[in-house]
Write a structure and sequence with these properties.
Helix content: over 70%
Strand order of the largest sheet: 1-2
Shape: globular
Distance between the termini: 7 Å
Number of helices: 7
Number of strands: 2
Structural class: mainly alpha
Largest sheet: 2 strands, antiparallel
Length: about 170
Amino acid sequence: MSRTRLMTTMAVFVAIGVLGSSFLWFPTGIAKAYPVQHAVNVVAAVVLGPIPAVIIAFVIGLIRNLVGLGSLLAFPGGMIGALLAGYLYRFTMKNSLAAIGEVVGTGIIASLVSVPYANLLMGTSYGVFFFIPSFLVSTCTGAVIGLLILSRVQDTDLIKKQLYQS
């Protein structure tokens, strides 16, 4: 994949993630779930790989914070899930394991990382398991959406061959 095509594809994923988060969200306890972020993570991890998926998650989180659509928790939540989804897909080439990587990365690991992160940067002192329920609801919903999208894309096998052979 040429550098121009990669950057353009990444920009499209960022646009989908930012716009989708403004239209599709729902409350999960004290937090809000933004499943489009997690769906984008799964699709980007499969189509582009782990590093571009992490960059996409970072830029989506940054733009969402700049326009007031998200919190600082978007950074660990999106980036850790995208990284694990990308690496699990790279090693197994299975869409379902990319989705599981997103759920484990965001729902478990990122929610645990968010406790000290929120304490340092947001001035909150929550317990260790405080973020897990809302993170899991958001990421499970998004991972299912991502899997549905991947199952409907006709040319994913061709895309995967081009990406992973070059």
